[in-house]
Amino acid sequence: MYEKTYPSKRFNITLDFLKKHIKTSETIFDLGVPNPFSKIMEANDYKVINTKGEDIDVNQTALQIENYEVFTAFEIFEHLLNPFTVLENVKADKILISIPLRLWFSPAYRSKTDMWDRHYHEFEDWQLDWLLEKTGFKIIDHVKFTHPVKKIGFRPILRFFTPRYYLVYAIREKR
User: Fold this and answer.
1) Which pLDDT tens digit goes with each residue over 118-135?
2) String of b and e for 113-124 (b: at least 16 CB within 10 Å)?
3) In sequence order, what DSSP letters do the residues of 15-83 get, joined into one string?
4) Angstrom distance (rounded) from CA 27 to CA 48
5) Does the global pTM surpass 0.85?
6) pLDDT of 125-168, one tens digit each?
7) Closest C-alpha to 74, from 169, 175, 172
8) Highest mean pLDDT among 39-53, 102-116, 148-162
């Protein structure tokens, strides 16, 4: 297990949630290039396929040609212009998605140095729920959790109490 600090707190909660719903015998298609969490999944005996760095807003071929039973997108949907089309192209009937929640006291994230590291969407929970419903998925389980920071000030105090992440497990009801 990983230490209970950020991002380890997020990783621990996500891994526990994954283990609760997904068997290690199921192949996972993890949206995004290999990353620290995909390595954690592999270290816990999950078979993981990642994208190769293609612009998933434009090229969703990998979603259609790879063989997988589970689709995951951990803190990816907020970077996409069109997550609806991505969900429409998912072959799997099981998905796990986590998103950072929109915070009323903080503007949308935008890196000053990396033009790709931006949040086009900062969802409220009901918006992700609606997106999943519109693409034929039914939410089976979900959890919200906080993102405390080790700083002093008004926003850090609010972050200690305000849920920052929303993690969902859903299954496809209809195609």
Assistant:
1) 555 677 899 899 999 999
2) eeeeeebebbbe
3) HHHHHHH--TTSEEEESSSS-HHHHHHHHTT-EEEE--S--TTT--HHHHHS--SEEEEES-GGG-S-H
4) 6
5) no
6) 998 999 999 999 999 999 998 776 677 765 556 656 666 789 99
7) 169
8) 39-53
Give the closest residue to 125 by CA, choosing from 101, 159, 98: 101
- Domains in the chain, CATH or no CATH each: 8-172 (3.40.50.150)
Percent of the chain at pLDDT > 90 equals: 57
Sign of torsion, CA 46 134 77 85? positive
40's tokens: 């954690």
Ramachandran region of residue 141, left (φ > 0), alpha (ψ -120 to 50) or beta? beta
Structure-block tokens of residue 133:
């419903």
